[in-house]
Write a structure and sequence with these properties.
252 residues; 6 helices; two-stranded antiparallel sheet; six-stranded parallel sheet; alpha/beta; Rossmann fold
Length: 252
C-alpha cells in the first residue's frame, strides 16, 4: 500500500509499506455459531429469570393487600403480636428498626388489641441474643413477663412463621415490622396457616433505599420458593401454647 506525502517545498514523496491482511478470521465459523447460541441462551434465561422474579413478587405483594395498618388504634384485634427480630447492639440495646418494631407491639398491647407478644429473633450464639433483649425492653415498659413469649430460633422470617404456628400454636396475629418487609412477612404467616395482619413500624435506619429494595425483591422470590417447596425450618423444641404462660419459653 502506498501514499503520497507532500513536503513544505511542494516536493512529493511516495511512501509505501506492506499491506497487512489477516490470513484468517479471529473466530472460525463453528466458534461464531457457538457464541451466538450461548448469547441467545443467556438472553432467554435472563428474560425467564426476570419474569420469575416479577411473578413471585406479585404473588407475595398481593398477600399484604389491604392487610397493613399504620396505627394500633385502627389495627384489628388478634390474640398475639409477632415482633420480628433485627439487630441488637453489643450493649444489648435494640437497634433503631427493632426499637420501632417493639414500639408497635407495645402499642398494641396497651391498646388491648393483643393479649400476648411473641418476640422472635436470632439467638444462635451465646454472645448474640435478640429475643431476650426484646423481652427485657417490653417488660421494662410494663408488659407482664408471662405475656411475653420468646422464640430463640427465629433466624429467618420463614422460620419465625413456621415456628409460630407449629411450636406456639398461633392461629391469628398482628405482625410488627417495617413496610418494605411486611408483604413477605404476611405472605409467610398466611402460608403457615396464621390469619395475619400487619402494623407497619417506622423505618429507623433501614429506610426503603435502593439496597433494601433490591435485597427484598430477591428475598420475596426466595420466600415464595421456600413456601412452595416446603423447605424445612428450625422446628426443634417443646410445644409452648401461646394461650399459656410466656415464662415457659424463657431461657433465663
Amino acid at each position: 500500500m502506498c501514499t503520497v506525502v507532500v513536503g513544505r517545498d511542494d516536493a512529493a514523496l511516495l511512501v509505501c509499506w506492506p499491506s497487512m491482511k489477516l490470513s484468517r478470521p479471529l473466530l472460525s465459523s463453528r466458534a461464531r455459531q457457538r457464541l451466538r447460541r450461548v448469547l441467545k441462551s443467556t438472553a432467554v434465561l435472563t428474560v425467564l429469570g426476570a419474569s420469575g422474579v416479577l411473578a413471585t413478587n406479585l404473588v407475595v405483594l398481593h398477600a399484604a393487600s389491604e392487610r397493613e395498618y399504620q396505627s394500633a388504634a385502627e389495627t384489628p384485634a388478634r390474640h398475639v403480636a409477632i415482633v420480628l427480630g433485627a439487630k441488637v447492639q453489643p450493649s444489648g440495646v435494640p437497634s433503631s428498626p427493632l426499637w420501632n418494631r417493639l414500639r408497635c407491639g407495645l402499642d398494641l398491647y396497651r391498646e388491648g388489641k393483643v393479649r400476648k407478644l411473641l418476640v422472635s429473633g436470632d439467638h444462635g450464639a451465646p454472645e448474640y441474643d435478640e429475643p431476650n433483649a426484646m423481652r427485657d425492653w417490653l417488660v421494662e415498659r410494663g408488659v407482664l413477663l408471662e405475656d411475653v413469649f420468646t422464640d430463640h430460633a427465629g433466624f429467618r422470617t420463614y422460620d419465625t412463621m413456621r415456628r409460630a404456628r407449629e411450636v406456639f400454636g398461633v392461629r391469628d396475629a398482628v405482625v410488627c415490622t417495617q413496610a418494605f418487609h411486611m408483604p413477605r412477612a404476611l405472605f409467610l404467616a398466611r402460608d403457615s396457616g396464621i390469619d395475619a395482619v400487619g402494623l407497619v413500624a417506622k423505618d429507623g435506619w433501614r429506610a426503603a433505599n435502593a439496597y433494601n429494595t433490591l435485597r427484598e425483591t430477591f428475598a420475596r422470590s426466595r420466600a415464595w420458593a421456600d413456601a412452595t417447596l416446603g423447605v424445612a425450618s428450625h422446628l426443634g423444641g417443646p410445644v409452648i401454647p401461646i394461650t399459656g404462660d410466656g415464662r415457659l419459653s424463657h431461657d433465663r
